[in-house]
Write a structure and sequence with these properties.
The chain is of the alpha+beta class. Helices cover 20% and strands 29% of the residues.
Length: 76
């Protein structure tokens, strides 16, 4: 299992960009991960850095992730 999705649990300071309790797509970025951030595709449809503590990663089985990634791509 890998993690390409997370649920927002805190949107303080970003009420327009993030909705609490909503699932977001993550983009891999090893550099920002070391700094405690996540690269998230937010409500604007663009990717931005947010503090990792604002999210709970959702590990999903590999066969489910491609379906969700495709679905997210259709909505942007």
């Amino acid at each position: 299992m890998s993690t390409h999705f997370a649920i927002c649990v805190d949107n303080e300071g970003y009420p327009v960009s993030l909705e609490r309790h909503k699932m977001y797509s993550l983009l891999p970025d090893d550099d920002v991960g070391r700094d405690g951030d996540l690269r998230v595709i937010d409500e604007s449809g663009e990717d931005y850095l947010y503090p990792a503590e604002m999210f709970v990663p959702i590990p999903l089985p590999e066969e489910i992730e491609p379906v969700l990634l495709e679905s997210f791509g259709r909505n942007t």
